[in-house]
Amino acid sequence: MDVRRREFLALAGLAASAVAVGGCGAAGGAGAAPDGSLRAAFGQPVTDLDPYNAGTAVDEASLIVKRLVFDTLVRYEGEKLVPGLATSWRRTNDTTWVFELRPGVRFHDGSPLTARDVVACVERTKAVKSAQSALWAAVKSARADGDHRVVFVTDGPQGTLPVNLTLLFIVPARLVADPAQKRRPVGSGPFRVTGFTPSTSVELARFDGYWGGRAGLPGISMPFIAETSSAITALRNGDVDLLWPVPSDQLGEVKGQRGVKVETVPSWTYYLAWFNCGRKPFTDPRVRRAMVQALDMEEIVGKLFGAGAERMRAPIPSTVFGYAEQPPYPHDPDAARRALRDAGLGGGFETTMMWFDATGPLARELAQSMISAWDGIGVKVAPQSIEKAQWLQRLNTLDWDMELQTNTVTTGDAAFTLGRLYTSKADRMGYKNPGLDKVLAEAGQSADPKHREELYAQACKTIWDDAVGVFPATLTTAYGLRSALTGFTAAANNQPDLSTVRRTP
């Protein structure tokens, strides 16, 4: 991204922030969040609100808003699964789950929520090929048994269904395929959408008919401020109430500031750089391992992030269920060059790596550090810093050589990442391994936590040894917030529940 473009985005972000602040009353115009709303700025833009959009099915920024607008049958409270729209659930046999729904729930348009809406949402989720598809492949059917009971039938044992249901957002059956859901969706969550400009701002108003009780503040305004320095200035000046994540190299600009406090949490968010294993030369595991050996990740992560990140020892963060530590690849450029010669690439090769800057803190710097190290073994990597929408489109169509991103294990369970991304059927990075498929399938079927841990340990080892990608660091998420805010809890998945937040006078 060139300087002019970055400056433009920074100005756009500040303009959005001004709208959020000035537009909290009638003077703000139609669509503005109501007066007294929480002003919250996340580090990535929201591009779409449709819960079944293929490109944003697991997009972190979109999920933050979706959890405020829509409900799920099951939800997380800390690390514990608790009732949402479902008051209870039980497994009646190996392939059947029964969920009892909460009576009296209404959507934002006043219509009642029933089991038929849930069934329609399951069918829509299964019909749309997305990054969530692997989670629902085992669901054979869902049917309504009256207004308040849903029966799921799977094609084999599936112990992870309740976890996966934390990602099934419920809308009225008649709207599951309505294009209007992209901009002004109807859900049953604690807030309703009053205004949305893609990649610029989201405006929400409290839904007073919410079954879980009224949210703490009358609304939420979420501007996207492209430049972190501008966002920090807005926080310090009181133009925004909440900002996250604050990069570790800029925490000093937030800590100790009058009227501002910082809360941190070891997150489920981490950096990864995948190789397109279906595209030469990355079809050869020797080449992929050489690329990993060329990197001194201890030095790169230490210099860039300091205490703001932890060097990864597996393809998922250490705080996630299913983590199993692996031996680190030694930094050995000579061995990397020998491996390339053995693969017939003694003269090196040329390739590309794409990312979007807002994916996470210091993304550009991390990319440049890796590209410089690869140059040292004769691999010329052309950098491709692109817009998020273009990145998503190319990612989902495997139109890339290498790609860098942050990823969040939204559910805190390895099934969400390992079981969703690394199967042959998912084909997220061109990697296909029937043996791994079998292990992941068994892990998804089992309801025994100990057995699942053993299986995911095998999966961690396979993915690590095959060098499917580079896994640099797990991030510590820092939230900067105005001191007047209460009821806020830092979330490991970067998706805090903002409905509980209040502001003291």
From TrEMBL:
Keywords: Signal
Top-level taxon of the source organism: Bacteria
Domain Solute-binding protein family span(s) in chain numbering: 80-425
Position of the signal peptide: 1-26
Entry annotated with the keyword Signal: yes
InterPro entries: Peptide/Ni-bd, SBP_5, SBP_5_dom, TAT_signal
BP terms from Gene Ontology: peptide transport
GO terms, molecular function: peptide transmembrane transporter activity
Signal listed as a keyword: yes
GO cellular component terms attached to this protein's record: ATP-binding cassette (ABC) transporter complex; periplasmic space
Name this protein carries in UniProt: ABC transporter substrate-binding protein
Species: Actinomadura darangshiensis
Highest classification ranks of the organism: Bacteria, Bacillati, Actinomycetota, Actinomycetes, Streptosporangiales
